[in-house]
Write a structure and sequence with these properties.
The protein has seven helices and no strands. The chain is mainly α and about 180 residues long. The protein folds into two domains: about 70 residues; about 70 residues, Orthogonal Bundle (Arc Repressor Mutant, subunit A), CATH 1.10.10. Belongs to the sigma-70 factor family. ECF subfamily.
Length: about 180
């Protein structure tokens, strides 16, 4: 494991790292949003990065991109929700205002399915579960997972394959009549 960020002056080097990465991160974000928004998102990402100040430098760069992407997604969600109309006219056609929300039965079915999936994931062997969640939930690439876990990319592929196979089998068992459902 690489030691935490440190500079020759005895400081932690974190600010220098962020300063050096700023133009690259803004360039990355400019491919997705306008320059002013990219600068704002980068700044917000750097503020969020303060909690990771003690992380080793080799992990900070990937983490910085993940945090910036999350800020970008958070802003998109927020902007989408702000675009909704703030009031409804009394003359509006109420039949035309169907809710985008799923029906209660659909929500209950989705929640039950989620409980089954979570249970199936928890039944995976520990390392297999960890690799699967790093890929599917954290969005890490196989190479990033291999580096993070100290294993080969081939081992990551095997863990992901096993997780998918086991999850498919467990969920299929629960769907069959007489299954554990």
């Amino acid at each position: 494991m690489t030691p935490p960020c440190a500079d020759a002056a005895g400081g932690d080097g974190f600010e220098a790292f962020l300063q050096a990465q700023r133009p690259v991160l803004v360039g990355y974000l400019c491919r997705r949003v306008q320059e002013e928004d990219a600068k704002d998102i980068a700044q917000e990402a750097f503020v969020r990065m303060l909690r990771y100040r003690a992380y080793p430098r080799d992990q900070l760069k990937a983490l910085m991109y993940r945090v910036a992407t999350n800020v970008l997604l958070d802003r998109a969600r927020r902007d989408r929700s702000r675009g909704a109309p703030m009031h409804v006219s009394l003359d509006a056609d109420h039949d035309a205002m169907a809710s985008d929300e799923p029906a209660h039965e659909e929500r209950v079915e989705s929640q039950q399915a989620l409980v089954l999936v979570r249970a199936a994931i928890l039944q995976l062997p520990e390392r297999c579960r960890e690799v699967y969640l790093l890929n599917r939930i954290e969005g890490m690439s196989y190479t990033e997972i291999a580096r993070h876990c100290g294993i080969s990319v081939k081992a990551v592929e095997k863990h992901i394959g096993r997780a998918l196979r086991d999850l498919r089998e467990r969920l299929a068992q629960q769907e069959r009549p007489g299954g554990e459902r």
